Automatic annotation (TrEMBL):
GO molecular function, one term: zinc ion binding
The keyword Phosphoprotein is assigned to this record: no
SMART domains in UniProt: Zpr1 (SM00709)
Entries under Gene3D superfamilies matching the protein: ZPR1, A/B domain, ZPR1, zinc finger domain
One Pfam family named in its UniProt record: Zn_ribbon_ZPR1
Any one GO cellular component localisation term in the record: cytoplasm
Family: Belongs to the ZPR1 family.
Keywords of this entry: Metal-binding, Repeat, Zinc, Zinc-finger
Name of the protein described by the UniProt record: ZPR1-related zinc finger protein
PANTHER family in UniProt: ZINC FINGER PROTEIN ZPR1 (PTHR10876)
Annotated Zinc finger ZPR1-type domain residues: 30-181, 245-405
Amino acid sequence: MSEQQAPEVKTLPPIFLDISPNSKPTEMDSLCMNCLKEGTTTMLLTKIPFFREVMISHFSCPHCGYSDNAIQFAGEFPAKGVTFKLVAKSPEDLNRRVIKSSHATIKVPEIDLEIPPQTQADTINTVEGVLERAYKGLKHSNPNPTPEFEEFLDNLDQCRKGLVQFNFIIDDPSGNSFLENPIAPSPDPQLQVEFYRRTAKMNEEIGLKVDPKSGDFQVDEVTTKTIDKYQSVFSTDQPVQEMDTDCPVCSHTGVSRSCTLSIPFFKEIIIMAFNCDYCGYHNGEVMIGGETSRYGRKITLKANCQDDLNREVLKSELAGIEIPEAEIKLVPGTLGGKFTTVEGLLRDIIQQLSAENPFMRGDSSDAQASSHFQNVLEQVKSFADGKNPFTLILDDPMSNSFIQKYKIDDPKPIIEDYERTYEQNEELGLNDIKTEEFVTDADKKE
């Protein structure tokens, strides 16, 4: 009996190619919006070496001479928006590199400067370069300035020359902008980074379909594809529920799955995962039940074996991560919410640090800073591969994070509950909650 030959699998070429002299653009006929005759659009889908995928296009009309250039971000949007707040204290701070998308707003509150999204859109520059372009543009557009406007230009000139201290703020709901941290992956005391969930209006403004079920957590790809396995790991009597749901990317019908789990020594959670077979989009979220915890929680795991790397981890979006051996300290919101293993969390840290520090790679990077950054990544990789022991610390002011214990008296991990500070309660909005009128007589007796 003759053996049946396997069908030949054809590999499609990548859509986005690295920039090279041999890159070939695509040309197509397009309508000229100036004279309504036929022009030509030249388009190139490519990768900028130390940035991301972009679409570069050029339109020209041979009839009226009109031409136009554009650069657009490609690929998927980050899950959250981002705000960068830099306290510029010296001329060295002006050399920090900036990526500004077409959805980002830049502000300098001290001089009431605001650069709207479409101004200097989709550009790579420095802090000084951004302020320089703003200064020249405003000066050119006002040949006969008023005394007030001259004073404003003088203040802007002092900022761009580094003569005064000022705050440089980038707010980008699309999450595609970036402000360099020269000492990454260590935290920069002058640079504050905050991630936030986009509102429905923000999603519409950046061109995303509104997903009414978007949540606080992301389940990693492995967890999304193997949701059933957690029924054997954790306690649950409920089967996985399935329902048809429209895909937020392509609008085709996909499958949304949910399952309620009770994690031993922790809380009850609901895992929800969505997968679209048509476009390949997948996403997930975790919801934690129960009341708001009275205390914050710090979990310390000294990992020195493979069993420690296999421990399940639930990290809330409010939890910070610290690995003292690698001098890594990630602020809350850096990874969002994660349901994975210790090993998976370490690999997510490597991926996130690489993605959020594009200027640490390529020809534009500082050799010394880049070498230190790569050493840190290699060190974390050695932890994930089980080659070296390390300490993992999760600090969650809401006590919604968890590292699996193999038995009730497991000496690992170490759990410490602490009283939240007033500032932490203020950030969480707990100081504004008034419950006095809901207190019962029984509660008062207690």
